[in-house]
Amino acid sequence: MSEVIIYNARPEDAEAICRIGGYFPAGSESPTPENIRNHIWQFPEGQLVALLNQRVVGFALTMRTNHSPDEHPLPWLDAVGDLDISNHDPDGLWLYGIDFVVDSNYRRKGIGTRLYQARFNLVKKLGLRGFYAGGMLMGYQHYCHQMNIRQYAEKVIRGEISDPTVTMQMKRGFRPYRLIENYTCYPAAGDAAMLIVWKNPQQISI
Question: Which fold has domain 5-199?
Answer without folding.
Answer: Aminopeptidase (3.40.630)
